[in-house]
Design brief:
single chain; 167 residues; alpha+beta; Alpha-Beta Plaits; four-stranded mixed β-sheet; two-stranded antiparallel ribbon; elongated
Amino acid sequence: MIDKKDKDLEQAQCAEQPISTENEGLGEIRISSDVVTIIASNAATQVKGVASLTGGIGGNLSQVLGRKSPFKGLKVEVTDNREVNIDLHIIVEYGVRIPDVAWRLQEAIKQSVETMTGLNVNEINIHVQGVSFEKESKKEEKASEETALEESTEEEPNTVENEKDEK
């Protein structure tokens, strides 16, 4: 058990190390793995059908190790040959076709990370952890509020017209 904790701690520390690339003798370009995480997180939250990112096993491990990550549900690993592996834990919106959402997520994240960093994305594993009903209930609430607003404006007399009629 101690060996596993040491290994997990080592992996967590490796995640903070910057990714280096060389630019043909002009110097070194260093990209933090946190930057890759930010890019992937932003791309993921833009995909229609994703309700939220959720803490997976990696998120729980970070809490045990005393490290707090603002990117719960997202684990980025960069290999020695500059390939990126991503594990993403999500909650989907109710009513979406889950495989379609997962494929769109993979494409969006791959494109964003490769375009912005020049790194190759090797794999993106999507872990669907739950389904959210919030969007549906919010739509229903909004519709009922709009209906109530329309009904209240129809019932209210127009006071400006009443004043003109009296004069």
